[in-house]
Design a protein that fits this description.
The complex is a heterodimer of chains A (291) and B (428).
Chain A: E1 14-17, H1 28-33, H2 35-49, H3 58-78, H4 88-115, H5 117-120, H6 129-158, H7 175-199, H8 202-216, H9 232-235, H10 239-252, H11 260-290
Helix pairs in contact in A: 2-6, 3-4, 3-6, 4-6, 4-7, 4-8, 4-10, 6-7, 7-10, 7-11, 10-11
Chain B: E1 4-16, H1 27-36, H2 38-48, E2 57-69, E3 73-78, H3 84-91, E4 99-105, E5 108-111, H4 124-134, H5 139-153, H6 168-180, E6 186-189, H7 198-213, E7 217-221, H8 225-231, E8 234-239, E9 242-248, H9 249-258, E10 266-268, E11 281-289, E12 298-300, E13 305-313, E14 317-318, E15 320-328, E16 333-338, H10 343-348, E17 351-352, E18 355-363, E19 371-381, E20 385-399
Parallel strand pairs in B: 3-7, 3-8, 5-6, 6-7, 12-20
Antiparallel strand pairs in B: 1-2, 1-4, 8-9, 10-11, 11-13, 13-18, 14-17, 15-16, 15-19, 19-20
The chains are: A mainly alpha (291), B alpha/beta (428).
Chain lengths: 291, 428
């Protein structure tokens, strides 16, 4: 076709729709065009989450806080699980924060496509926007819970009669990197679960069980150093090991510094994310027909 | 160089209607089946895999090719399940074709539903932003048109109220307001007008014709034939997934309305076609005769015609009236008439006893214009009950040979073509 700019608008896009077979390209450019939609969807999730609840945003604090209290009583006081010389409440809270973001993200993302069925069957937009928005929506809860953690640290350091002193290290600047790793892991797992849930609603039943099980294989209620050395490598195949240990290390200087274990966890996280993206894209073509 | 907006070639869409042994199974069934027993589903899938394109699939769309030029307003009509919605879903990229291809020049905005993604807990203002973003608008674009949208929706006072407190009319108006301000080069619209009250529909149609007049390409699906006729110049007729006709809208609508109807000038109801609620009224037939008392499907404008309704009553009915509707295939109502319209009949048949009846009337000569018409049947007791209604009982053609003004071979507007006495006087 001859290019005549007189009559054709130069920016006119020509779109070819044809059946795709097998693995499709990720088409992240399209996702970038729809970045505002991702923002609006996570904004909606946040806005709606605590509507018509008596306690409202307090729920973002209550959940990790009371879990921390229970852990402190049972694991700290009764079972006397070591906590890397960090006050048990701080130790548990630093583990529960990235964990909370992860469970919330995979649960919300896992249900997200099915919940937004009406949109998927009626309008085109990159479907990736939905699980991504679910994951990012959890960040608000994370920030609120993080403020509580900071409050707890201040309490330990300045309250009269406090025997502990919590010191954050100079390496605290690496914290955002571990937060990023947390998001990558959550998104990777979330993408797999959301795409699978379109075809197999078993995911609804697997999710609560999965998060419970995963909690025990992640060093939240205990330090990773408790795991025998010969099992460490296998243990670090759980990507959340690297996230939680790294988070604690960056914040408190407690536990193992970045090590082969972190490298393994990070690699797994990235593999899960990339495979999740491709699996999602492959299944995306049938979402509207199957959901 | 081309002014093509859409080109579709050999488009096909296949749906699996079941992956287990049962051959008749809805998509939903097979989904829930798969969810309940993934392992069973896996096994039967591998067992079925050698069957290939088995009976478990249906083609919702097959071999559909057409093109649309820029600025064209194209209607798409067809019965339920004809593939209209599937076609729109492919064009709006909601779902992928199974075969064939579509080439689209320009940004597509689709309106397969109004209020997609509206959240009941969010306010009107918040939903405008959310819905706008879902429809593909930029935030700046929404901000620019915000006031206009609110004005269009007429819900100014409630814009900061959660939409769950809106009446259904307000909800629809707000939802349509957002959609109506979408400015794509190609607009794809499904049955959005099927909802809402008459006022809302009028407003939607007005907005749609504005869009059409702005020179944008519009694809419009509706069951509302008068809307299709008003808004589109040309239409596609789909039937069971095939494109059966592309013609100027009037011709396409005629074809759609008359295909599948009896063409013989009579309609006979069989037992299984009569709903239980009709009892004790039992329709038997509706027939159309010409002046020689022969059943015909083509009447002559210059001759009178006879309509006969035959029916039986299993129990006496008080205040029964049996009558017909006449309308054109464009959907224009012409008249409604009942057998007890006259005072005499009204008094005499105040209670109609058990028995078999024929109600008969004559359509006078020189009344109707040439064209195609639809006769509907109604049996009811005023403000008590409607026993039976069939709005599209039979269709017939009217031949205008000999009608007034036939010396000019031009179509005359309007369903009537009365022979009126004209006097021409010369004034000095």
């Amino acid at each position: 076709m001859a290019q005549t700019t007189l009559t054709t608008k130069p920016e006119e896009e020509i779109l070819i729709l044809r059946p795709t077979h097998g693995w499709a390209a990720l088409n992240l450019r399209d996702l970038w065009v729809y970045r505002e939609l991702i923002y609006f969807l996570s904004w909606r999730d946040v806005k709606v989450r605590y509507k018509q609840t008596a306690l409202g945003v307090a729920w973002a604090i209550i959940q990790p806080f009371f879990t921390m209290v229970v852990f402190t009583i049972f694991f700290g006081k009764l079972a006397k699980v070591p906590t890397n010389d960090v006050p048990p409440p701080i130790f548990y809270m630093t583990g529960l924060l990235p964990w909370g973001l992860f469970t919330k993200a995979i649960t919300d993302a896992g249900h997200s496509l099915v919940m937004n069925r009406s949109m998927i069957t009626k309008v085109y937009f990159p479907r990736l926007a939905i699980p991504i928005a679910s994951v990012l929506g959890g960040l608000v809860d994370f920030v609120i819970a993080f403020a509580i953690l900071v409050g707890m640290i201040l309490y330990y350091n300045y309250a009269p009669g406090s025997t502990y002193h919590v010191a954050t290290t100079r390496l605290v600047w690496t914290l955002p990197l571990f937060l990023l790793l947390d998001i990558i892991t959550s998104l990777g797992v979330g993408l797999w679960l959301s795409a699978l849930n379109v075809n197999y609603r078993d995911i609804n039943y697997i999710l609560p069980f999965l998060t419970q099980f995963w909690l025990f294989i992640t060093p939240i209620a205990y330090p990773a150093s408790l795991i025998p050395a010969e099992w460490q490598l296998i243990y670090s195949l759980n990507p959340m090991t690297g996230v939680v240990e790294g988070f604690r290390w960056a914040f408190l200087g407690a536990g193992t510094p970045p090590s082969p274990m972190l490298a393994v966890s990070t690699t797994i996280s990235i593999i899960v994310l990339i495979s999740g993206l491709f699996y999602f894209r492959r299944m995306e073509q049938t979402f509207a027909d199957m959901v | 160089m081309t002014d093509l907006a859409i080109r579709a070639e050999d488009l096909g869409k296949r749906f699996r209607i079941g992956i287990t042994q049962d051959s008749y199974r809805t998509l939903r069934d097979s989904l829930s089946e798969a969810a309940k027993a993934p392992f069973r589903a896996f096994r039967s899938k591998s067992r079925n895999s050698n069957r290939g394109n088995s009976i478990n699939t249906i083609w919702a769309l097959k071999n559909v090719s057409f093109d649309v030029h820029k600025g064209q307003v194209l209607g798409i009509i067809g019965r339920n399940g004809a593939g209209k919605s599937t076609l729109l879903k492919i064009l709006s990229r909601v779902t992928e074709p199974t075969e064939g291809m579509v080439e689209i020049h320009g940004r597509v905005g689709s309106l397969l539903e109004v209020g997609t993604g509206f959240h009941p807990e969010l306010t009107g203002r918040e939903n405008i932003y959310l819905n706008g973003a879902i429809l593909g608008m930029k935030r700046s674009e929404i901000e620019r048109k915000f006031d206009e949208m609110v004005a269009f929706s007429e819900v100014e006072q409630f814009i900061d109220t959660p939409v769950k407190r809106y009446s259904s009319g307000m909800y629809l108006r707000l939802a349509f307001a957002v959609a109506a301000h979408l400015e794509p080069e190609i607009l794809v619209v499904d049955e959005v007008l099927a909802v809402g009250d008459a006022e809302f529909q009028r407003k939607c149609l007005g907005k749609m014709s504005d869009v059409a007049q702005e020179g944008r390409t519009v694809l419009f699906v509706s069951h509302n034939m008068s809307a299709i006729l008003r808004l589109t110049e040309e239409a596609l007729v789909l039937d069971r997934g095939r494109l059966v006709m592309r013609a100027p809208t009037q011709q396409a609508v005629d074809y759609y309305l008359t295909s599948g109807f009896t063409q013989t000038g009579e309609r006979i109801w069989t037992d299984d076609e009569i709903p239980a609620e009709a009892a004790p009224f039992c329709p038997i037939s509706l027939k159309l005769f010409d002046s020689r008392h022969i059943v015909v499907d083509t009447l002559r404008s210059v001759e009178p015609a006879i309509i006969e309704v035959e029916y039986a009553l299993d129990a006496p009915i008080t205040g029964l009236r049996v009558g017909v509707y006449l309308m054109t295939t464009r959907g224009e109502q012409i008249f409604t008439t009942f057998d007890t319209d006259s005072h005499e009949n009204f008094e005499r048949y105040s209670v109609r006893p058990v028995g078999r009846y024929v109600s008969r009337c004559v359509i006078p000569a020189d009344l109707l214009n040439e064209g195609r018409y639809i006769l509907g049947l109604n049996a009811s007791s005023f403000r008590v009950r409607r026993y039976f209604q069939d709005e599209y009982a039979l269709t017939f053609s009217l031949d205008g040979t000999g009608a007034p003004g036939m010396q000019w071979p031009e179509p005359r507007l309007g369903p009537l073509r009365p022979r009126l006495e004209w006097q021409i006087e010369e004034r000095k």
